[in-house]
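[Structure tokenization] protein backbone as discrete codes

[Encoding] learned vocabulary of local backbone shapes

[Begin record] amino acids and matching fold tokens:

___
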Amino acid sequence: MVNSSKKPFVCEACGKAFTQKGTLRVHEKVHTGEKTFVCETSGKVFTTKVSLRKHDRVHTGEKPFSCKTCGKAFTSHSHLREHERVHTGEKPFVCETCGKAFPYHSYLRIHDRVHTGEKPFSCKTCGKAFTSHSHLRVHERVHTGEKPFVCETCGKAFTEKASLRHHDRVHTGEKPFICETCGKAFTKHSQLRLHDMRVHTREKPFVCETCGKAFTEKSSLRIHERVHTGEKPFVCETCGKAFTGKRSLRKHDRVHTGDECN
């Protein structure tokens, strides 16, 4: 029950109570849809002066909220709070299905689709669907050939920022992922996981549904499945011969270093 002496101003539409009449008036706009504060630069309208002030920073470039740990600045206090989780490691958003935790609600929403199977973002070129818009954007570069992330040391370009970060370690020699069993270090977490399965656990989690053969890597399973489907997506540009895997095509390419195709 709302204490009317403490919150005497009650919304007639939903019953929510407020301590000040001005706060009630702002709240009522949620129901009426009224937006009275207009941005003079873009014409965008807002229900509160605070929302307009925050929006204004898009145009002014003002970022008054700075991280005390790394100095990065933000337009709003809420964005700063979210960023601070990078340093604290806080992950307040937990998946109810598997218990995995995330620093941002948006990450949890995307993760939920792993369980629901929902893939709302589809490629207009090939129809392939994705759980997030960012994954779709990265995929679209397969068709456009765009590689916007360029290594400053050697000029090699990549479709994803993460791929560039991994590549940078070739130059820096950084190997941040260390095997707890033998101490061997790796540039990528996927390499560490693969090493652990191959050397220590002998785990082969990827199993062919047709013949039951198991593999340590998903990519190896995909290549193997082509034995059953007959798919040969890697084609020699010189002679047209097709192969199930990229490695087989590369090996075949050596035939053309002076010899004709049989």
Summary: Residues 189-201 form the longest helix (13 residues). The radius of gyration is 27 Å. The chain has nine helices and 18 strands. The chain has a mean pLDDT of 87.
